[in-house]
Structures are given as structure tokens and as C-alpha cells.
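PROTEIN DESIGN WORKSHEET
SECTION A - STRUCTURE
LENGTH: 207
C-ALPHA CELLS:
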């Protein structure tokens, strides 16, 4: 990269959504149920399913929560701080897949309800990228980067954003709805990463 080059990273804002195992999908819908693709997502092999569920917490519920396919090996519910307050759940801020000690929730489908004993998180902001992107930016999987945006006249800095690298990924910054609202960012906007800006690249591993 040249000293003056700025890297634009597309933004994706996520509503609350769930990743479910095949067993839980069957429990919610019917035996041997298969999810139907509503629309493919930007990350390879992932899709927004036609099917949705209702999240039921101690204080409230959120309806029409999209299932993200295909089925997973572990159940995970991703919400924002506002969603967690609505549900009455103390959802910790975690990296995707870091589910130890997380709270559970009741999920209602058309057939029945399923009680998850863990899996509810507020996901950390993260950047997906390919190995070629990582080589170009001089980072590796699980490094941290800083990205900056300027949307509608409001500048915002996201520090120590986790990098996820895979050949299946497409370059994209993932934020939840609260983070998008706070910064004025919407899906399709861009943030900037500058490898020449001191402090932008932090090689420390996450704690």
C-alpha cells in the first residue's frame, strides 16, 4: 500500500438474528425441516432464511427475528444493547462463537418453543476479509484494526475491531443497529482503514 492510500470497507448493519442447530430448527418447525433461502448474504454460503422466530425474554419479546442459514453446530442469538434491554437479558459483548457463560432465552416458532440455556450475545464489531485483503493490509486473523467513518457530518472511530480472515469471506465491517444509529452509518456505507496512520494496526491478540 502506498503511504496515501485509504482502504474503503463496506458496512453491513445487522438486525437481531439467530443461528440455530438442525435439532432446534426441527423442534421449532417440524421434523426434518429444511430452511428456505430468502436472500443470499454477502458472506459466502450464508443466507437469510424465509423463516423467522420470536425471542422471548423475562421482560419482553422481539418478533420476526430472522434465522441465518445454513444450520450451525451451536445455537447463537445476536442482539444489540437496545434489544437486550427490551428482552430483559444481560447479554455480554462477545466475539461470535464465544458462548461460555452466556445467558439463554426462549425461542418461539410455529410448531413449538425451544429453550436455549446459553448463546445470547451482543457481537463485537468485526471485519470480514479474504487472505488477499489481509496480505494487502498487513494483518492476520484475529488482529485488531481501527476504522474511521464520516457519515452525515458525524465522524466516528471504531478502535480494536476484530479481523476475521477466510477465503469464504468478502470485505465487510459488521455492526449492530445501535452502532449504526449512533454513528449515522447504514448498510452500503463505507469506513476507512489506513495502514499508514499510527495506531491504526494493532497486532495484539484479543483478551
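SECTION B - SEQUENCE
RESIDUE ASSIGNMENT:
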Amino acid at each position: 500500500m502506498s503511504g496515501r492510500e485509504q482502504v474503503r470497507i463496506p458496512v453491513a448493519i445487522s438486525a437481531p438474528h439467530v443461528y440455530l442447530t438442525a435439532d432446534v430448527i426441527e423442534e421449532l418447525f417440524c421434523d426434518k425441516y429444511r430452511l428456505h433461502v430468502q436472500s443470499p448474504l454477502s458472506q459466502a454460503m450464508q443466507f437469510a432464511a424465509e423463516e423467522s422466530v420470536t425471542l422471548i425474554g423475562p421482560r419482553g419479546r422481539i418478533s420476526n427475528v430472522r434465522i441465518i442459514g445454513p444450520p450451525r453446530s451451536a445455537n447463537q442469538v445476536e442482539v444489540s444493547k437496545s434489544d437486550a434491554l427490551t428482552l430483559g437479558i444481560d447479554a455480554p459483548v462477545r466475539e461470535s462463537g464465544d458462548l461460555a457463560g452466556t445467558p439463554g432465552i426462549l425461542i418461539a416458532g410455529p410448531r413449538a418453543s425451544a429453550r436455549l440455556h446459553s448463546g445470547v450475545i451482543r457481537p463485537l464489531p468485526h471485519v470480514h476479509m479474504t487472505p488477499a485483503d489481509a496480505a494487502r493490509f498487513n494483518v492476520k486473523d484475529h488482529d485488531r484494526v481501527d476504522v474511521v467513518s464520516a457519515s452525515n457530518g458525524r465522524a466516528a472511530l471504531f478502535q480494536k475491531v476484530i479481523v476475521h480472515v477466510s477465503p469464504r469471506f468478502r470485505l465487510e465491517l459488521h455492526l449492530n443497529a445501535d452502532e449504526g444509529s449512533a454513528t449515522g452509518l447504514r448498510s452500503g456505507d463505507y469506513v476507512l482503514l489506513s495502514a499508514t496512520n499510527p495506531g491504526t494496526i494493532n497486532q495484539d491478540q484479543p483478551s
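SECTION C - NOTES
Confidence is low (pLDDT under 50) at residues 195-207.
The chain has two domains: 7-12+125-202, 15-123.
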